[in-house]
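Hi R.,

As promised, here are both runs. First protein below:
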Amino acid sequence: MRALTYSLTVVTLFAVTLAQSEGIKDTVETASSSANQEDEEPKEAWMRAPAGGVAVKSGEDALLTCVVLGARGKPVLWKRARDLQVLTAGGVRVTRDERVTVLHDDSEEPLQGPGIMKGGDVWALVIKSVKPSDAGLYMCELNTEPPVRSFHKLTVISRGLTPPENQNVTDTYSANVPTMALAHNYTDCCVSANVTKSCLGYCSIQSILDGPGQDPEACQADFPAIVKCMADGRNHVPCCIQEHIPDICQDVCRGEYSPVTDNIKTHYSCAASMEKTLACIVEGIELLPSPPEDVEVEPLNEKQLNVSWNPPTENAESVTEFIVNVTTLRSFDAHLIDPSESSLKNVSNKMIQSFTYKVPSNKTFLVLNDLLPFTMYEVTVTSYNIHGSSLPSYGIRSLTLTPGKMRTTEVASAPQLPDVRSCCINAGVNHYGCVDKLCDPTKTFEIGVTDLMICAPWAGTTFGCLANNLDHTPCCRSRGLPESCLPLCSGNITTLDFNHFKCLRFMNSYTNCLLQGYGVLPGPPSRLHLTNIDTDYAVVHWAPPAALADTVQYYNLQYKSLSSEEDYRVLGKVQSPFILEDLESNTDYEIFVEAVNEHGVGEASPRLIFRTQSQVIEEEEENANAYNITACCERVQLSTVCMPLCSYDAKMSDLRTLAPLCEQEFNKLVRCGAGGRNHETCCARRGVPAACRGACAGAYSGLFYTCIAYVGNIVQCFEEGTGFLPGPPREVHAVVSHDKLFLDWTAPTDGANTTSYTVHWQKVGNNTQPYYYNSVQLDNQMNVTQTMARIESLEVNSTYHLFVVAVNEHGTSLPSSMLLINITDGDKDNKEVSGIPSPPHSLSVSSHSATWLALSWQPPQFSLPDEKISYTLYYKMPSQNNQGNVTKIATTVTGHTLEKLTPNTQYVAWVKAHTDAGDSLPSETLLAWTDPAYPAFVEPPTINPVNLVVEGTSMTILCIAMGTPTPTISLYISGRLVRQEVTRHMVTVVHNVTRDMDLISCYADNGYGTPMQASRKINISHIPTIQASGITMAAAGDSVILECRVEALPKPTIAFWRDPNGRTPVIDGPNYSIQLISDPEEQTKYTMRLIIKKITEADEGDYFCHAENAFGKTLRPVSVRLRTSNPHHNVTECCTQMNVSSACIDACSFHLDMDNIMDRPECMNDFDKLMKCAADGSDHRSCCASWGVPRNCLELCRGGPVSRTCALQHARRALACFRDSGAKMPGPPRNLKAHAAPTPNAVLLSWEPPRKNPDTVYLYRVFWRAYGAKVPEKLDTSETSVVLTGLQDDVRYECVVKAANDVGTSSLSQPIMFTTAGQETAAAAAPVSTSGTASAVGVAVACILVAAILLAAGLYYRHRKNLRLKAQGGVAFENPSYLREPNPDNAVNGTMPNGTSNGENGIANGISNSAAWRQETQNPGTTLAAAREVDPSLYEELKLGHDGAGFKRLKP
């Protein structure tokens, strides 16, 4: 039931399809009329021929349908065409392949459709689950006489490929269903031709027009196969010619493709004609037949060749005739042929001859008669129908036989072999296997080890019978059999053992020696020789062997190259003469021949060694007669760098590279390329547009970049024309006599093909040009065959223009020169005029500015191609009438730039050409203006990428400037000059951008007006960078602030983590506060702050500052530690040590009680001691200054003596600072000592860490100076010792040290005095107490020094102030890196400190700008007038620090 449904579906589908294609409107009539149609069956059986094939994917089912009309009950057969295997007969499957079935409906019910009378007319072959091996032709055949057949093509597409579009699972028929114009799909052919899978988009016309999906450059290697498959063996050239497709583009119409290589001739343009070409191919596929198949040529005798072929596979039924083309090959010249065999020895001038023979479509063979003996012919066969033809079949080359020889048609029987079998049986060998193998000389090569072991008892008998009473030892020895095996050849062997097993390898040679000894094999071929040795082939001859020549069936020819180690290559079943092809030129070969009959291969002929001819010599001989374009380029003095372009085989890569360098010399290349010949006809034929044809006539039009697509078309015409077109006439001159003119000239140097000359002349009037550009034709012409001419009846008092061109049947040359002749009444005597080059022309301004003009022109149109031409350019201002004001410039190129001109000024220019023949007339006159001068104007720079420049990447900067003349543009990046160029548009790519490249400036100046600068500030996006505060010490319950300084763009998102791996966050809540504070001065800087409000042991440990933006993320650790010591300072103990009076001792507690002090005036005498104890050795001036404590009172904040007014007003504020940060700040270093150093002029200082917060100290600052010196020196170190160098012996020095951590600094340590010998034991740098003689001495010294300073204050104040301002400066910390100055905190008086610390890290670069020293550079007293301040005493300066607050004190 399923099969019946399938059958009906197929029948209905075809019926409807056929009805639609015929356009039949009323195909179904009444039942009676249908019955009448059934009775009217066709008189003859016939089938509808399919117009396409079936394409299915591998694994799917294929359905091939056949419509048979007029079967009259005869069976329909389905066959496979390649092996003619019958698949089905009628409705029965014949093949064993169960995948094959036939669908057929035997019902008599009429169906719709033209010519289909009933369902029984349709037979469908079904192949289930098709495989690639099922692809090919299938034949539907009606068993009649003669048989009626139709052919059906099945294509199996791989699963990875796309099946052809517009194909149904059923066949379509060209007679009734017109195929769509774009349905030509040749994917199956491309697949079989191994086209790359990615290039299969070019294997369908539709996909080519829609877009193949692959770059053509990637498929260049596959295009020859693709184009061949596209043409499908049809000749589409007539259609292409009818559509006016250039001949250079017609190779696709023939199924050929010229691969695009680096050779300039392969770069030609066919894009304009491609659509018409494809249309012709699609039309030809539907209408034209394919080539004949299986063409064979067999020589019959010395004058006959038999040609046979099979019908074409496509449109075979439409073939009307076959055309057989027979061509005599030129390679077989008379002097190369063996004189004894050649029939051409009396022919002196043999030309190539071609003959065509027409053969009716019902014949597939042709016997060629009346041919020349021993001559090579090439035969092709072409199919023709009413629409056109196929392409010729593959050419077959064949030789006719030598005179008197006929092709042997019968082979005589070879002599009988001896009856070895009977010999063995009679001798008593009774084992059947031994008799069958060891007693049959034709089977001895099949003997194995088992046979020898079984038949060993009869060894003497069997091998004796095989020898047949003959000794074959000489033959065996010559064929390499070992000594132990030779008894087998003589038959004298009695026993077999394992030593004879190795003889089995030589049984083939043994058998051959037996047959040769029997006399049944042919002898060696004789007279082996060669003729017609060429570069890639040779003709091999031999005579039959002397022995048994009539039994020879064929010959084996073996040959090898002597230059390689390869084995002999065997060509079997050949006959003499034989064409040995595919040889390499200039190579030695060795050959020999063996005769073969029914028994085997006979003895080989003698070896013959020969050498093929050299291809290089042939090419040199051909090139010797060619036009030498290189010599022309040398004569016109083409620059050396451009010489690679002076060749018809120039490389396209060289043209692209050298075009900018050689653009002004292209006119020389074009002139030499044209060679003085007019190639315009060829260029027009090959599709070169009219605008580019000037180059075809040797006139470079200047449209290089417009015409570059047609360079291959033009160069091919150049090369082709040098062999056909005549060269130019030379040395043209005239003699004028009144109204008559006599011309003569010299024939072209390569003018052997010149047949005539044409003289052109024309009268020149006031309204006519003296000659036509890009034209070689004038009003009057005269054709002559000699190199002279006479022109009469010229008008007197007139001017004529003349030139001469050479002519032949292919075209004309170009004129070599022109003559401009004045005919006057005074020319009674002969006046001689010589030809000169035509003037330069097309003088124009190619570019211009305010101070220069760039002029260009075209070279003379009439000149010899190899003539050296130079030019003189003349120019002046029109107002300068004096001839001396004309400026002359000599040049050899067709262009020049006039420089240093005046802006907004008119100039006059003209050009003359100079050759050996003479000077040309002037060119046309050119009037040109220079531009007015305008000052430079520059636009703000354009930066790309816009608003997204990332640090470390690249940015492109465009500076655009206007102005005349062209300005000089300078690019500055953050103040640095990066690039400078004279241009209007300057593009600069900056790599590895850094964040300080944020100011881009374009500066323009052209010498007129004011230079202009335009700048743009940009943001450099970058990954966040973090500076962390390090370790913070705190007491339990304190409020702790952890800070990280972040620099990022765009703004980062922040977080504090406790664990960076687990990403454990710190959550903003009751005990934690997270802040991100922007820097008001720099938008890219932020401070991220974590405030721990009451720190506990759980909060102690490491925290991680995390900042992230779109360009990355950064993580830095900060830490907080709880102090292990008592966080409260015991002020009572300090007060006791300072001898505070007993009446005030109770005011001392863990914190000083200010109210208790104020209630008892007697304690005011001990106030300084109380404050010193409360300060606990720390410097709190920064805190006090931030709360508004005036500068003159800041000494109170580190426990120093102050006035009573300061004590009463600001003591509470100082005590508050003591309580807030006193527990966190370090105390002063202890036990400062000086020791003698091991090196001269040095001393070793050492000290102990402070008692308070020693673990938090990360920096010590050492101050020292010569005793009595005014300015101290300083040094920073992280160690507790330091070596001071550069000291002087016998000089006393004083020194103090202070400590610093992240919170602040300590007060100064106790001062010491030292020399290079060490510390002075009984000396102090300054008084440290208010009692005793030391105190008095200190006060006296201070008073004296103060008096000295007051006397010099007026002169020194300004200078001192500048020094302090310089030392205080914070500019260097904020400025970009390239403007940074040395850090003032690391330099003293402009030089680096002359000390180093232990561990080679005495100078901690950059630390001086840390939080520890910021309070030293603060200036809280800026509100005080400078007039009220005086310089401090030396002790005060030393005590307070060189650049710290409190440097000055108030005037009394």
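And here is the second one, sequence first, then its structure tokens:
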Amino acid sequence: MSGSIPFYQKHHLHYDRGYRSKETQSKVSQYQASSRYSASGSASAATRSRGLNVSSHSGLEESRLSPSPKRAKPTYLAVDKDNQIIGYVVPIFRGSQEFATGLSDTEEARVRDTAAYMARRDLFTSGLEMERSELISRKETMRESAERITLNKRIHEHEEHFKRMNEDSLMHAPEFVIKPRSHTVWEKQCVRLHCTVSGWPDPRVVWYKNNVALDPLANPGKYKIESRYSVHSLEINKCDFDDTAQYRVSAMNSQGELSAFASVVVKRFKGEMDEFLPAPRLGPVSEYGITFQTHIVDKFGVSFGREGETMSLGCTVIIYPALHRYQPEVEWYRDDVLLSPSKWTHMHWSGDRATLTLTHLNKEDEGLYTLRVTTKSGYETYSAYVFVRDADAEVEGAPAAPLDVRCLDANKDYIIVAWKQPAVDGGNSILGYFVDRCEVGTTHWIQCNDTPVKFARFPVTGLVEGRSYIFRVRAVNKSGISRPSRVSEPVAAMDPADRARMRGTSAPWTGQIIVTEEEPAEGIVPSKPCDLQVTEATKNYVVLSWKPPGEKGLEGVMYYVEKCVSGTDSWQRVNTEIPVKSPRFALFDLAEGKAYRFRVRCCNSAGVGEPSDPTEATTVGDKLDIPSAPGKVIPTRNTDTSVVVSWEASCNAKELVGYYIEGSIVGSNVWEPCNNKPVNVTRFICHGLITGEKYVFRVRAVNAAGISQFSQESEAVEVKAAIGGGILHASPAPPYGITILECVRDSMVLAWKQPTFIGGADITGYFVDYREVIDGVPGKWHEANIKAVSERAYRVSDLKENKKYQFQVRAANMAGVGIPSLPSNTFLCEEWTIAVPGPPHDLQIREARNDSLVLLWKPPVYQGRDPVNGFYVDIKEADAPEEAWRGVNTKALEKTYTKIKDLKEGEKYVFRVRAQNKAGVGKVSDVTEPVPALTKPGTKEIVVDVDDDGVISLNFECGNMTPDSKFVWSKNYEDITDTSRLTTETKGTKSKVVFNRPGEEDIGVYSCLVTHTDGASSSYTLSEEELKRLLEISHDHKFPIIPLKSDLAVELLEKGRVRFWLQAEKMSNNGKVDYVFNDNVVSQGEKYKMNFDKNTGVIEMTMESLTPADEGTYTFQLQDGKATNQSSLVLIGDVFKQLQKESEFQRKEYFRKQGPHFIEYLSWEVTPECCVVLKCKVGNMKKETSALWHKDRHQIKVDEHLGFAEGVLKLEIAQISKKDAGVYEVILKDDRGQDTSTLNLTDQGFKDLMNEVFSVIANSSTPLKITSTDEGIRLYTFVSYYNDLLQVTWHYKDSAIAFSDRIKSGVVGEQLWLQITEPTEKDMGKYAIEFYDGKGGLRRTVDLSGQAFDDAFAEFQRLKAAAIAERNRARVAGGLPDVVTIQEGKALNLTCNISGNPVPEVTWLKNDREITSDEHCILKFESGKFASFTITGVNTSDSGKYSILVKNKYGTESGDFTVSVFIPEEAGGKKK
């Protein structure tokens, strides 16, 4: 609800009841709470209880006061006579009745139902007395409450004065007034833990989960921690199984520390649907029964960008098992706000990598970015901060751009623009801001204010109703104007009610809401506006708001605003020219410091209405004060490049936007912003600092009125990783696993395991306590050692024999002594007398890899009757039963370490060790913690190295070191004591041991362990064979040879020059080379040119040409300090002659290419269209160069003015034939010379060309197909082009076909066919056509048998019969006209030809009716060919349509003609 109310309404007294003093609120709530337990038997108490309900606004309070059941929830649905829902009913507000009577509806019902009320109902007088009694009771109650509030206020003021005067005497350690309680909740629910803490000074409260401090920023959206008025809460959002834990809240001040505990248990609801089945999914992926494991790797870190840049954040997401097309839900958040794709943010999911691209960085993009990957088995998140630095100012000294421009309270012609001030002012204070607007769809920006405004909100007026705008803001100081901010989201200038209707809210399914608009009433002057008030006042402007008049349907209501100076009655209209449409108005140009009153008039076409009630006097000036400077700033070490900065919030800051933090290197006096976007918390991690430097910090608060003064500078802090990685309490966790290694009459030797958490610093020692246990009751603890012991074993002396004891151990580091371990089991102090050894102890795991690890242990303290002579190691899977223990070694180990191999990757194992002596195998050691056989990411191994001086060293690098990490080298897993043989050197993340005098004494296993890491370690076995190999390499390095990348070689350059060259691997500037030919050193001169490039190591010698005297051996001798090498090349005999010949050829070629020349000589190619193209590639051409084409020494073509320096010349032969055979020649010539290229296309050359043509034709042929004709069956294929020289052979059953009158072949256009006339079954079989191309040829085949033959033969029979029928069917050959016009009385004789076999039958028709021959109409059919039609004397009755119909067994045909008879008189009349 509050989100929809403009910001300037939230400070009015009518908005909420925040105007009450805290004391009043507290006392009223206390009095209400106490009244719940007052006796209900007395009438006065009941009356007082009801009276108190007047000021109670909580439904919970009412429910507690009223024991009667609640009435039914009222319905707001409109129904018709048939109880059908037709709409909504809007109820009238009834709050005034309840407050007037002082009774709620439920209380009235309860009172009405009592017997007392029934008895008094008939007594009018008694009723009046009861009402009077209730009125008096309420007055007394309110008076008592006011007196009590006044008294408590005085007491409170006295206590505060006493505290200030006697602070030290009031200081006390924290106390939990209310401790947090444990909760059991369902999965996906939220849970809140509360506690109330007292203490002076105010304690600092930290929440822990399983002793790990909770950081809400590290888990955005998961945890929310609040502290208000000594009430502290931890809210856990959307609980899952991982949230089941013990939570601890720690309160600490200068007087001490106190903790309280609460447990949270998260349960999963098992309803009708199986809890392991996910919701149905669309698509082919089935997830049922699958538990996904999600891992986010290759993560983005804390990132820094600059405005205007593009930044991509990405993580690789591994989901196991990997299902094809499975799509997890991938979401990105910034400061716990879900991001959506936009022009500023692009999101991409490739199937295994999630990427967020910030296309154009602005300071709005700064914040904590979180990637959340959700599967049906849960979700994984990862977060890192992104910092955005300001872009360089366009004007030196100008401020940075403002940010987060938003539009508030949009109306028809009025919008309030708000923004946040930048952190950087350019070195001069910001004078104000300019607001620009731009209509959506255009690029024209208009400045809205002529003078800068300092307030970070500005009302923009003069907008056009219905249009959308975007806004931006620029800051200005005396040096210039900043870059513009990022533009706001578009906003439309329209009535908020219209905007709500445009958003569209659908009615529920039970009914509908019908919105109608009344016809505007004409000629009615609107009444006065109401609820006029000043919603915002600054020294630059004042904003008024009001409500329209109550009448509905008024025509076009607008408003005039008037003002007058307070104390006068002279009203002046502000907007004299144009009335405003919105019930909001901003007044500018008011005199600062003066008081004004305002009023508003409505107007329309009917006139101007009465003015509203004036406002109270408002003084022009900033009502919102700039916040005060933040309090004490405390920096805390965090990492090597970051510091946690905390500060006290600004006091009484209103509308606080956030804080800006700045940091400076001590002594530099240069302050840099740590954040460019205000943060609304009082703790911030400043990243990007320089390791080892000391910084001081300061903080400023920001609200709309401006930026506060700087806080006091913090104390200097060195940028260095904090102990415990930033955890406040860095003392070690308790040790565990206390066991007895030896027991004598008055002492016991204890052993224990190192704490799982050492606090980030080395453990400096352990403290042991013991206590005696008598009859199961433990006594008081006693210290066993005053000085810390460094080993994890200690002998506790001065014990009593046959007494029982318990022990506890505490670990200590530089941060302090940790909490003690849990008490051990109860041990009896009696002397061991067994013959076998006691248990080994201090088992450690090193060098865990995918298939192996190293196990170390210490021998037993108690050796038994005889010395220990060996050890046995047992192994089993961590989840396996006790029966699964098995031995690693069958023969006893002499050493106290072993490498265990052949482990299963990812499996967890546990180990134990037993010692043996002559008497047998002794007790087993404690079992190790489960350890997985897994190589951790970033694991590196020890690398052996031999440097240039032959020095042998072992090198180890660790990438995940902490500032307190150290390299610890050992030989055979024991400390190295003889430092004369080894020298250790460590720099940064690398360490090495150097063998001073390598020899047999150095043989052994060398290992390196890095402390304060997750077990980073490695080992290297230096065996006798390995030592021998390293010594050989060392000798080679001491007496080195210059390595060569390539030996001496020879190659030819242009002009036929000869180059001898080699390349050395590496040579210094002092290196030199001797060039030797046949044992004689040659030097630079006309014949030999030498060059030595020391950067690349290339050494070369060139000669212009070779002569017979140059045959022999060439050698390059290299020397660089003490390193030498040489390489030789022998050039004698045929090798030298071939090189000399090639050199001469290259020399000639060079001179040939000085003029126009052929790069590629004349050749031919055949195009897919069977066109032959003669072509050649030429170069070094000029416009004057001509190309002459000849055939058989006759010029056939001239190419001139070619226009290119290098190109291709072509001659096309479209349809090649024998006449095109010949010798073709191309001559290039100009003033520089000429070059010739010849191509012989005769004899074999022409055959090769035609064979290629035939091959192209053959490849273009279509598959052989079968068709039928009326003569037989035809096989055919099409080619793209047919040439008369093409040789084709038809085959039947792999034999060439002998053609005859019955079987023929031919060519029609591009169709090649084979005709089989009158086919029979003997013609069935496989047919083929073979194209000859001089190579393998190409054959197309078709099988004319089976169904193919049957179908073709049937089609042939059908076509044959159809042809016979077509030839023999009855026909009217001709002779009949279409129309005959004849004079009455004349004779008509028509004859037509008839054909057909057999002879057709002839029938004559008149007007579609058959006629027969008679004396008037004589019909004849003679010789089976001629049909005649004769009318001896025509008359008008003979006019009509006549037809002749001929018919035989093959068909029927008809011929039509029309006879028109006319009378001569009629004809003459027509002419007249």
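A quick note on the second one: The first strand starts at residue 77 and ends at 79. Let me know what you think.

Best,
J.
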